[in-house]
């Protein structure tokens, strides 16, 4: 009995230590964003929404935020069909060199981001699209595509092939079977992957640093440029914005897919 109690205390102790360790940086950033002082510090000097107001008055911040949403939307829009079809093809169908294709599709995840950023900068420069905003979204899709493929692959593996066979036996052509049976069945993985791709693109800094300039700078790069000069509380307010977007993504995931289904698929 005493051993069981000690085990429970140890397990819950580790759980609480993990929760505190994960939550503490977020709580510190949130608290520091409400400071009334001129420098970022915790505990904050008083309580004020001043830095949120000043942040929203910065045209450079609003422009960088809009560009970041635009890049993230392009990344998500490209990854949805590409990642979904790639996952279904590599899991469901017997294609030649399937293992080689699967490894190739996962290569962006294994290549360092610095290497990816430099190579894409050179390539985009050669084809005269470097400095435009839409190629940044395509680049972010390429480096994060394995997450989309993994997410959809988990849903594909959970499909009973007999369901598709039953639809085809009833006379449904392959395209109709795909649209009415396969695609709805893998939709939880598609939604999960799409949300992941949007958040990853919204947060991506290193590759964006290589592909943007002063006219196309995204929010993570804008934050980096600000930190190089001086760290002010408005940067903490930007961090709270990132936290809010992450919470919205988790809420949408729970409402559209269900966190229990998402966790089981992993």
TrEMBL record:
It holds the Pfam family BPD_transp_1. It comes from Rhodovulum marinum. PROSITE patterns: ABC_TM1. It is a multi-pass membrane protein. Keywords: Cell inner membrane, Cell membrane, Membrane, Transmembrane, Transmembrane helix, Transport. Belongs to the binding-protein-dependent transport system permease family. The chain crosses the membrane at residues 12-34, 69-91, 103-124, 136-156, 177-202, 235-257. This is Putative spermidine/putrescine transport system permease protein. It is found in: Cell inner membrane; Cell membrane. GO terms for biological process: transmembrane transport. Gene3D superfamilies: MetI-like (1.10.3720.10). Its main location: membrane. The lineage of its organism: Bacteria, Pseudomonadati, Pseudomonadota, Alphaproteobacteria, Rhodobacterales. SUPFAM superfamilies: MetI-like. PANTHER family: INNER MEMBRANE ABC TRANSPORTER PERMEASE PROTEIN YDCV. GO terms for cellular component: plasma membrane. Residues 65-253 form the ABC transmembrane type-1 domain.
């Amino acid at each position: 009995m005493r051993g069981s109690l000690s085990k429970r205390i140890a397990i819950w102790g580790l759980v609480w230590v993990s929760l505190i360790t994960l939550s503490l940086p977020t709580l510190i950033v949130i608290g520091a964003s409400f400071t009334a002082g001129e420098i970022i510090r915790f505990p904050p000097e008083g309580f004020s929404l001043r830095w949120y107001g000043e942040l929203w008055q910065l045209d450079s911040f609003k422009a960088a935020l809009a560009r970041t949403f635009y890049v993230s939307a392009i990344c998500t829009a490209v990854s949805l069909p590409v990642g979904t079809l790639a996952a279904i093809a590599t899991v469901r169908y017997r294609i030649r060199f399937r293992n080689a294709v699967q490894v190739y599709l996962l290569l962006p995840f294994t290549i360092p981001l610095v290497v990816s950023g430099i190579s894409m900068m050179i390539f985009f420069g050669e084809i005269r699209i470097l400095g435009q905003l839409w190629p940044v979204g395509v680049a972010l899709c390429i480096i994060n595509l394995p997450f989309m493929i993994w997410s959809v692959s988990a849903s594909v593996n959970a499909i009973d092939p007999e369901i598709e066979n039953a639809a085809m036996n009833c006379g449904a052509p392959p395209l109709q079977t795909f649209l009415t049976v396969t695609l709805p069945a893998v939709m939880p993985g598609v939604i999960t992957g799409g949300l992941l791709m949007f958040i990853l693109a919204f947060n991506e800094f290193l590759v964006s640093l290589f592909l943007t300039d002063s006219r196309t700078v995204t929010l993570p790069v804008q934050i980096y440029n600000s930190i190089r000069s001086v760290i002010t509380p408005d940067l903490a307010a930007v961090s709270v914005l990132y936290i809010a977007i992450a919470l919205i993504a988790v809420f949408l995931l729970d409402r559209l897919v269900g966190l229990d289904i998402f966790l089981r698929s992993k």
